[in-house]
Design a protein that fits this description.
BirA Bifunctional Protein, domain 2, 3 domains, alpha+beta
Length: 396
């Protein structure tokens, strides 16, 4: 363990913001503890892989940069809660039980395979949300490919805002000599070093794994008008975010499933759709007996000079809400977010209305693994103990 003193203490109210960023300081940090003095964090104790004095100096420099740039520059705000509902009974973390029963299998870092009634439950919850947005918002459904062209993601501003979460798609250089050299290295006498061979012969990354589904919709309607003045699109697909060592159970996956709803139109229509969907989401949560709260939130902008101002503005203007459900007595997770983008994506993607003005947009995303996990933490892994209407639908 190595103690890294901070130049300036981090107030307790911002400790979580610091904790969200430590692993992204360096992938050689394998563990950390925030050291508190009074009501502030004054140092971070880190565990690292084979670090010498020069490495520790680098860790210190990088950590202090993140603290000064992304943490201390933030304004402290108490999250505004816009909805709250009491839970039906106790809640407990069932992840160890899911593993023990073979209902979940860890197949890689940040990657978990699900089976049995868990998959059926996830599909049921998704179907309820899909039916809701089709009925209430007139949503049209699309099925998008997984890969996204890197220039399309660039238009979203994601590269500049969340570089720590990017997951790129690479491939072997398109050349016969490359293929021959790659195969030769893999078929050597010692079986070859796959990692070394891939690093030597890859590099093209003109596609990315999408971090969320709504970007596909903006790309779909880029440089033209939406199909109607008030357009709502929904889709289900895989999203990918590199969560480093923060990956944990079904709470934070590198590879997860999302039900997305995108609104395009006027400011009034987009905000009306968002409000209606939030209200229906509260009702669905209560019908499932889950309880929870919805609060004003902000995005984890990283290493961006305007990050703190943007995060504060999001909260102040209530651009983003998160629906949070409990997993145990001391922990909860955001299972959905409801966002308003003003004309940012309309302008970035050249999506314009009949008067050639950038359209307003908003979106809502439901993390299906997280929602399913929160349900199981409330009702248990035995379908016989689930609410009757859920059990009957899953059995069908």
């Amino acid at each position: 363990m190595t103690l890294i003193p901070l130049d300036d203490p981090v107030p307790a109210a911002l400790a979580d913001e610091l904790a969200k960023r430590v692993y992204f300081v360096s992938d050689r940090i394998t563990g950390f503890t925030l050291v508190r003095t009074g009501d502030a964090v004054t140092a971070v104790e880190v565990t690292t892989e084979d670090a010498g004095p020069a490495d520790l100096d680098a860790f210190t420099r990088k950590l202090r940069l993140v603290v000064a740039n992304d943490v201390l520059s933030q304004r402290r705000m108490v999250p505004k809660v816009v909805w709250r509902s009491a839970a039906d009974g106790p809640v407990r973390d069932v992840y160890p039980e899911l593993l023990a029963r073979g209902l979940a299998t860890e197949v890689g870092e940040g990657q978990i395979a699900l089976g049995g009634p868990v998959v059926s439950l996830m599909d049921y919850l998704d179907a309820e949300i899909r039916a809701l947005v089709v009925r209430e918002c007139g949503a049209r459904e699309f099925r998008y490919p997984t890969l996204m062209p890197a220039p399309a993601l660039r238009r979203t501003g994601y590269f500049e805002s969340f570089p720590q979460l990017l997951m790129l798609v690479s491939r072997l250089h398109g050349d016969v000599d490359t293929y021959r050299a790659f195969l030769s290295e893999l078929t050597g006498g010692d079986g070859g070093d796959l990692t070394a061979a891939l690093r030597a012969h890859t590099g093209d990354a003109d596609h990315v794994l999408p971090p969320t589904m709504c970007f596909h919709t903006y790309h779909q309607y880029a440089d033209g008008p939406p199909p109607a003045p008030d357009t709502v699109v929904t889709s289900r697909g895989k999203a990918f975010r590199y969560e480093s060592r923060y990956s944990r159970s079904l709470e934070r996956l590198w590879d997860f499933t999302i039900r997305e709803i995108v609104f395009l139109g006027t400011s009034r229509s987009v905000l009306a759709h968002r409000t209606r969907l939030m209200e229906r989401a509260y009702a669905l949560t209560e019908s499932l007996g889950l309880g929870g709260r919805c609060e004003v939130a902000g995005d984890p902008f990283f290493l961006n000079e305007s990050a703190a101002v943007r995060a504060w503005s999001q909260r102040l203007l209530e651009m983003k809400y998160e629906l949070r459900l409990p997993l145990d007595d001391g922990r909860d997770v955001a299972v959905a977010s409801f966002n308003y983008h003003e004309q940012f994506f309309g302008r970035s993607f050249g999506i314009r209305d009949a008067d050639e003005r950038p359209v307003f947009t908003g979106c809502a995303g439901f993390g299906l693994e997280r929602l399913t996990y929160a349900f199981l933490c409330r009702h248990g892994t035995d379908p016989a103990r689930w609410p009757a209407h859920v059990r009957e639908a899953v059995d069908r």
